[in-house]
Amino acid sequence: MKTPRTKKQFLQQERNIEIAALYLKGETLDGAGAPFDLKKEMVRRILLRQGITPRRHWSKAKPKPTPEEKRKIKEVRFWMGAALTADPNRCWEWLKYIDRNGYGRASWDGKTHYARHLAWEIYNNKVRTGFILDSCGNRKCINPAHLKESADKTRKNRG
Ligand SMILES: [Zn+2]
Predict the structure, then answer these.
(1) How far is the centre of ligand 1, averaged over its atoms, from the C-alpha of 159 (Å)?
(2) 144 Cα to the center of ligand 1, angstroms
(3) How far is the CA of 96 from the centre of ligand 1 (A)?
(4) Cβ–Cβ < 8 Å for 24, 86
(5) In this predicted model, what pLDDT tens digit does every residue of 72-106 receive, in sequence order?
(6) Cα of 38 to ligand 1 centre, how many Å?
């Protein structure tokens, strides 16, 4: 999944995720598009772009989201927790829980993590081996452009 770069992209992605969620809950193509004044064909295209193949009309089976679809929805929900900006120099401040040390925290798979760790891992699509440090000095920041993995795996450089 691409990280939204502009406010417009962000809002559009948010809308598309809502449409996907409605559809996966059992709405028809028309029903999923209705809150956004979108026609069936547009909804179909939005779903396909998110890797969801619309079911045939005669099928009564409700589609269950695939693990890949669930993951995408989770990732977008995660990015929605920060104030994203189009300017790569600016910080993406975490808007949800901030711990007593000033770091953003997010839950993922039922556990609480540093939001910056999740941001780095989601963005780079790999599991970190070191700590994640910021280059901007902003503890709330999760902008992947401001985060780098520490080569030093000891706790002293924890970021
Ligand atoms: Zn920053």
Answers:
(1) 12
(2) 8
(3) 16
(4) no
(5) 888 988 999 999 888 889 999 999 999 999 999 99
(6) 36
Pairwise CA distance, residues 35 & 16, whole Å = 12
Collapsing DSSP states into helix, strand and coil, what is residue 91? coil
Can you give the pTM of this predicted structure? 0.60
**Separation of 81 CA from ligand 1 center, angstroms?**
15
CA angle 24–26–32, rounded 5-degree value: 75
Q: Are 137 and 131 in contact (CB under 8 A)?
A: no
Between the CA of 93 and the centroid of ligand 1 the distance, in Å, is: 7
What is the number of residues in the chain?
Answer: 159
pLDDT in tens, 113-144: 999 999 999 999 999 998 899 999 999 999 99
115 Cβ contact list (under 8 Å, min separation 6): 81, 82, 94, 96, 103, 104, 105, 106, 142
